[in-house]
């Protein structure tokens, strides 16, 4: 039996108004995200990926269409859903440690447990030694990692991630991808991961949804590559090469 849908999107349209002109960012999108899946959403810049995630997170409302989370209409942000946005949302007046602790503080977790959990997560994202630094004292990549740790601190059942590793160097990206997969494998969390990188989409996802202009689904296919997936080995794997070609073709088609 297939896993129940956590997110169900139907006929989703989002139009922005700028200088009296309507800009359609997403038109008539249908999408179901099954519980426990790792879905990568692949698309070129401007195709509406962030808009879709903002809508799924309940940060903006659809112009038309519906979004349901576990069968209930999405009416705003919810604690079960963690969202790692493209832009930096760390609190500048809080140290790394205090930023990571924030969701635990909001959740009423006692101070001692909070400290331990935050320390664990800071280590996981490779930032031990920087606990007392402030966001302005960190590189862009380090700030992304703090944001990742903060999101994980809330222990959300669903993770929405908008190009979380795009700004990182290749080595660190590979390490955090592996860490994310490990966490996902252990937790049964549902992940919707936006990227414009074909290789990343294939390394991570058990399903890839390719979006074209205005969020049109150009391709939606399961990825059966065995795990763990090693980038160096995959690059010479005929199945991976064929998938890479298929996604590349879909991206081109989506741009039309
Ligand atoms: N607040 C807004 N007001 C007006 N137009 C917007 C707004 N947000 C997004 N858009 C427009 O909607 C379209 C989709 O933008 P979106 O940020 O969702 O794309 P994206 O696929 O995430 O791009 P990227 O990969 O570059 O982040 C773009 O044409 C963008 O200009």
UniProtKB/TrEMBL annotation:
It comes from the Bacteria. SMART domains: AAA. InterPro entries: AAA+_ATPase, ABC_transporter-like_ATP-bd, ABC_transporter-like_CS, ABC_transporter_ATP-bind, P-loop_NTPase. The keyword Nucleotide-binding applies. The keyword Nucleotide-binding applies. Keywords: ATP-binding, Nucleotide-binding, Transport. Residues 7-238 form the ABC transporter domain. GO terms for molecular function: ATP binding. Signal peptide: none annotated. PANTHER family: ALIPHATIC SULFONATES IMPORT ATP-BINDING PROTEIN SSUB, TAURINE IMPORT ATP-BINDING PROTEIN-RELATED. This is ABC transporter ATP-binding protein. The lineage of its organism: Bacteria, Bacillati, Actinomycetota, Actinomycetes, Streptosporangiales.
